[in-house]
Amino acid sequence: MTVIASIWTDLLRPRRNAAQDGGGDPATATAETTTYKGEVPEGKGHRGDKRLESFRQGRRAARRKVLSLLGEHHPELLSGQRGVTLSREEVSRFTAELQRLLSSYSYKTAAQFLAIGFEKGTESLGWRVPMPAVPVAIAREPSTISPENFRGLGRLRKLERKFLESLEREPDGRPDVRLGQLLFSAIVFGGLLSKSCLEPWWEALRKRDLHVDDKGVCLNMAAEAFSGPVPTKTARKRRALRGTHPEGTTPATDQKPVLLYRRWFAIL
Question: pTM score, two decimals?
Answer without folding.
Answer: 0.48
